[in-house]
Amino acid sequence: MLNANEIHSDDTRINVLPDGSLRIDEVSTTDAGHYECMAKNNMGEVHSRQAQMVVNNEVIETEAEAPKFIQTPPVELDLAEGQPLVLHCVVSGAPTPSILWKFNNQNIQNGRIKLFGNGSLILPVASLDDGGVYSCYAGNAIGNASVNATVHVNEISRSTTTATATMPPASASASSQQTIVIASSHHGDDAITTTPTTVPDRTSTTVAGPGKGECFPPYPL
């Protein structure tokens, strides 16, 4: 009953369901009022407690809108091997657009690459194989939109330095008051110092040297 009047069944919008519930489709302001359920038989009738329904005649309209990007990833991005990769793809639209990420035209599954509901993509540690084109696709019933980001993952240079040296002879001979030079020939970053040596005043001498380098012939002063 509505406002103490029996509801007529000729209104196709209003239906009494098998369990006794009342269903009203396409509610309008004329449906506002006090509702109650009445059950009766030959022995009498009983009424339920009243329920008031208020119908707001203000119509809220949601304008449909195709997907529109609010935040997009950079067109190109350079990373060093081992760095994290973070791409954001924030989109608006009505109905709410769904977002799909692709890598080199292949769908990205949520795994090593983390995909979030807000459209973000995070790869904690990027490898050389992760370089390529990442595409964000957004779509709803009104339209579709997409944006691409080209990611370059650069290899970390690992340079090594080696040093080589030429061994001098085990000994050298010189006459008195001559100067001999034991010099080293080497390649590398560590400097090797060469020192001239004067032979004491005697007829001849032999200078032994376990050092590294080239021994040049004695030169008179």
Quick description:
The chain is built from no helices and 23 strands. It is an all-beta fold and 221 residues long. Among the domains are: 1-58, Sandwich (Immunoglobulin-like); 65-154, Immunoglobulins (Immunoglobulin-like), CATH 2.60.40.10.
Distance between the termini: 132 Å
Please summarize the sheet with the most strands.
Answer: 5 strands, mixed
- Contiguous uncertain segments of 5+ residues: 189-194, 202-208, 211-216
Number of helices: 0
Q: Could you name the CATH class of the domain at 65-154?
A: Mainly Beta
- Given the C-alpha coordinates, what overall shape results? rod-shaped
CATH topology of the domain at 65-154: Immunoglobulin-like
Mean pLDDT: 76
The neighbouring-strand order within the major sheet is: 8-16-15-11-12
How many DSSP E strands?
23
* Element string (H = helix, E = strand): EEEEEEEEEEEEEEEEEEEEEEE
Beta strand %: 35-45%
Assembly level: single chain
Secondary-structure-derived class: mainly beta
Radius of gyration: 46 Å
The helix content, as a percent range, equals: under 10%
Query: CATH superfamily of the domain at 65-154, please?
Result: Immunoglobulins
* CATH architect. name of the domain at 65-154: Sandwich
What would you note in describing this structure?
The chain has 221 residues and is mostly beta strands. Among the domains are: 1-58, Immunoglobulins (Immunoglobulin-like); 65-154, Sandwich (Immunoglobulin-like). The protein contains no helices and 23 strands. It has strands at 14-16, 22-24, 33-35, 38-41, 44-47, 51-53, 65-71, 76-80, 85-87, 90-94, 98-103, 106-107, 114-115, 121-123, 132-139, 144-154, 164-165, 171-175, 179-183, 186-187, 195-198, 204-208, 214-215. The strands form nine sheets. Strands 8-16-15-11-12 form a five-stranded mixed β-sheet, with no helix packed on it. The model is unreliable at 189-194, 202-208 and 211-216 (pLDDT under 50).
